Amino acid sequence: MSHVRRIAVNTGGGDAPGLNAVIRAVVLGAERRGWEVLGILDSYDGLFEDDGVVRLDRRAVRGITHLGGTILGTTNRGNPFEWPVGDAAGGERRVDRSREVVDALADRGFDALIAIGGDGSLQIAHGLAGMGVRVVGVPKTIDNDLAATSVTFGFTTAVETATDAIDKLHSTAEAHERVMVVELMGRTAGWLALYAGLAGTADVILIPEIPFDIGSVCAKIEQRYASGRRFAIVVAAEGASPLGGERVYQEMKHGRRRLGGIGAVVARAIAERTGHETRELVLGHLQRGGGPNAYDRLLALRFGSAAVELVEAGRFDCMVALDPPEVLAVPLAKAIAHIKLVPLDGDVIRTARSLGVCLGD
Length: 361
Ligand code: F6P
Prior knowledge:
- By secondary structure, the chain is of the alpha/beta class.
- It has 10 helices and 15 strands.
- Strands 3-2-1-6-7-14-15 form a 7-stranded mixed β-sheet, with helices on both faces. The chain has a 4-stranded parallel β-sheet with strand order 9-10-8-13, sandwiched between helices.
- It is elongated and about 70 Å long.
- Bound molecules: 6-O-phosphono-beta-D-fructofuranose.
């Protein structure tokens, strides 16, 4: 058992439905134990600002379980180990502010930190643990690509949002006899595209794990049109890439680039090769928005409660994880060791093939 009086909680990286439910479970669980909880705003940014750390009590977390976003704010540009700093020439360089973070946490008297985040945030948490911070991680991401947990909260809500969009595209695709290409999130892993694509009965699903042959994609579409179904739905994860080709990026400021645009590339190629009228849609941040579904609310509440239990038990540098039917603890090092990809011999891929869905190969 560890001696605890005051803990901090923060949310880092891209948001995901369920963050607020975790925060509520942390605050109520901590209050029940007589601990004080403070929220660090915008990942770690709040530690460097006068009013960047806020008291969280029962009243502050009332009525937030079903709300999307995060009451603490978040950023995916706040890595204390690689803090972006603008220079006089309008460029950007990275500085290591991790020691300042460790000191700020100690100065404020935090006995532990509960860090809610995805791969990047959990790497930061593990780094801070190596510097002596007593930290417990909570896995979130709509990408579901974190190893060591069977699922992250936010994923199934995003699958529902994307499936709903694909459902809606069917009627307009059919009315116009068009091919509709939908680009979904998923940088390295295709969980979201695969699950939403299957649930939404897409004809083609392109995921990062399977480089695609545009010839196979077009053959599937032609076969469908020839059978009398004169429209088609193609789902592409943003990280999908053609056989022997590159992933598609958008160039940003300061030499940064962001994945995005594969949907348009695929749509153009389909139109050119098949002659069928084709449109593309990028679902984008809609997939991260909105409140969590019941499954994600419950998972988030369980994760938050379990994180408080770990703090109480003095088990740090670890992450709560779902290992059905239980939530348990895994070392952070194991959680961030690798990205969880879709297994190509798994039953979901086999189901897709059995249904005749083209996976681009
Ligand atoms: O949450 C992960 C993710 O959804 C990725 O799939 C996507 O590439 C990224 O976030 C985009 O995040 P942002 O636009 O906030 O940088």
